[in-house]
Amino acid sequence: MSPRSARLARLSRSVTFSACHRLHSKSLSDEENMKLFGKCNNPNGHGHNYKVVVTVRGEIDPVSGMVMNLTDLKEYMQAAIMEPLDHKNLDKDVPYFSEVVSTTENVAVFIWDNLQKLLPQGILYKVEVHETEQNVVVYKGEETIVK
């Protein structure tokens, strides 16, 4: 029997959570916020049923046949996504968003950062946040674009 080279695979799992928010930047006037964010700047906020797809990648373990145990991934996603975000007012209930505008882009960064604290180092590949069926943000941990 010849040794097989390691195989790399990606594994994804999704969850759905409900939350409300208001798109509003403290750096802008009320008029500028209304112009930029429109109806999403409603003082009473608005809600979404967000779908989040988390993808990890790694070598397929030759013993277990897995990149990662799905039960473990489910628990990490519960702690990093569902507990802090589900049925919350993002702007009022999640301290991170007291200073950061609760756009879907920033929700993706928040989820990435939370997962990074829990998952084995280097395994997190991608976080996709579906705000609606038409609006999707993909974040892969990039911090800035060099110009």
Characterization of this structure:
This is 6-pyruvoyl tetrahydrobiopterin synthase. Involved in the biosynthesis of tetrahydrobiopterin, an essential cofactor of aromatic amino acid hydroxylases. Catalyzes the transformation of 7,8-dihydroneopterin triphosphate into 6-pyruvoyl tetrahydropterin. One of its GO terms (cellular component) is mitochondrion. The protein has 147 residues and is of the alpha+beta class. The chain has a five-stranded mixed sheet. The radius of gyration is 18 Å and the shape is elongated. It has a single domain, classed as 6-pyruvoyl tetrahydropterin synthase/QueD (Tetrahydropterin Synthase, Chain A), CATH 3.30.479.10. The model has no long low-confidence stretch (mean pLDDT 94). It has helices at 30-37, 70-85, 90-93, 104-118, and strands spanning 8-21, 46-59, 88-89, 124-130, 136-139. The protein starts with 7 loop residues before the first strand and ends in an 8-residue tail after the last strand. Helix content is 29%, strand content 28%. It is built from four helices and five strands, in the order βαβαβααββ. Helix 2 (70-85) packs across helix 4 (104-118).
